[in-house]
Amino acid sequence: MSIPESGSGVPGLFEGVAAYYARYRPKYPVAMFDHLVDRFNLGTLSSVLDLGCGTGQLALPLSERQIPVYAVDPEIEMLQEGIRIARDSGIPGTRWMLGSDRTIDSLNLPLLRVCVMGSSFHWTNRDLLLNALEPLIDDEGGIVVISERSSAWGTEEREPWQDVIKQVIQEFLGPERRAAEGTYSHPIDNHQVVLRRSSFRVVEELEFPARQTRTIEQVIGLQLSTSYASIRRLGSRVEEFKQTLTERLREAVPSEVFEKVSNIEVLIATRT
């Protein structure tokens, strides 16, 4: 079974990964948040929807700036972890809500300035979602889609050790990228094409560089935070996977320092 644009509410897509997601997913650059705040004049009177919020990688930095944020995710474990982080960090103001692109109309959201999505847009039915968001975004607002190109399955310029990760994942889970109960099928139309055929047709493309230095533990933790190599998917072979990947990474990088410079791609889509 192939999982294409079937909606971010795909059952079990990120089940069991919340703790890894919170701990090992990289933070977004401060400069990116600064730009979004200035671009949309975000403040205490402008609400933001973080759709597919995970454990709050976008929601919490925005809430820290006193911006009202509605953080929506289909996985209750993600929301619970986000609530814990917000409490422990003393960040008030985020409203955590169980939902997905399929339930936008039932969430009773206020008029929004922006809908932000970090690596979640491709899991949604993008055209239907943009239609649903149209009446919810005010005249000065728009859609922000954020992607970080450093997946083990990515096609961008890669470090040799990233190929080691992919090889080990394929040894344990097969040659195709896994998703939910089947395999992942990447959308044919890129995000820019989909946005331009919606009412948010004016698309600005930006990039923010991000340098990441990770340990072996952090590299492996990041893989376990994904839909394609989660502990649920690995099952009883989780510890074997960790050990195998540790050994292969040590062979590839004896220093055990894993550096990667990647670009955070930001698409800003507005009506005019």
Distance from first to last alpha carbon: 40 Å
Shape: globular
- Report the biggest beta sheet as strand number plus sense, adding barrel if it closes: 7 strands, mixed
Oligomeric status of the shown chains? single chain
Helix residue percentage = 25-40%
Q: Please provide the count of β strands.
A: 10
Overall mean confidence score, pLDDT: 89
Unreliable stretches: 1-9
What pattern of helices and strands is seen along the backbone?
A: EHHEHEHEEHEHEEHEHHHE
Number of helices: 10
Strand order of the largest sheet: 4-3-2-5-6-10-9
Helix and strand content put the structural class at: alpha/beta
What Rg is obtained from the alpha carbons, in whole angstroms?
18 Å
Strand composition percent: 15-25%
Summarize, please.
The chain is of the alpha/beta class and about 270 residues long.
Structure description:
The protein has helices at 18-24, 30-40, 59-64, 76-89, 126-133, 160-173, 191-196, 216-224, 231-234, 238-252, and strands at residues 2-3, 48-51, 69-73, 94-98, 112-118, 137-148, 178-179, 182-184, 202-214, 258-270. It is of the alpha/beta class and 272 residues long. The strands form two sheets. It has a seven-stranded mixed beta sheet with strand order 4-3-2-5-6-10-9. A three-stranded mixed beta sheet has the order 1-8-7, with no helix packed on it. Helix 1 (18-24) crosses helix 4 (76-89) and helix 6 (160-173) packs antiparallel against helix 10 (238-252). The longest helix is centred in the C-terminal third of the chain and has 15 residues, at 238-252. It is globular and about 55 Å long. The relative contact order is 0.18.
